[in-house]
Design goal:
73 residues; mainly alpha; MerR-type_HTH_dom; DNA-bd_dom_put_sf; MerR family transcriptional regulator
Length: 73
C-alpha cells in the first residue's frame, strides 16, 4: 500500500509515518516504498507506545528489539 493508504487505514498522518520510518521505527525503512500489512501492524504498535507516553527517542532503542524478537519466534 502507498503512504497515503497506510495513513488512511491507520489514522496516523503521513508526515508522522515518514518521521517514524526515517527514525527506523518501522520495518520498512523507506517512506517512499510500498508498505505491507506488517508495516501497518508495527505502525499501530509504535502509535500505541507513543500514545502511552513513550517518545520517538525511546522507541529507537525498543523497536529493533521488538522486531528481533518477532523474527525469533
Amino acid at each position: 500500500m502507498t503512504l497515503e493508504q497506510l495513513a488512511a487505514r491507520s489514522g496516523v498522518a503521513a508526515d508522522k509515518i515518514i518521521t517514524y520510518t526515517e527514525a527506523g521505527l518501522l520495518p520498512c525503512k523507506d517512506a517512499h516504498a510500498t508498505f505491507s500489512a506488517d508495516d501497518q501492524y508495527w505502525l499501530d504498535m509504535v502509535n500505541c507506545f507513543l500514545e502511552n507516553g513513550s517518545s520517538v527517542e525511546d522507541l529507537k532503542d525498543l523497536m529493533p528489539l521488538c522486531e528481533q524478537c518477532a523474527t525469533t519466534y
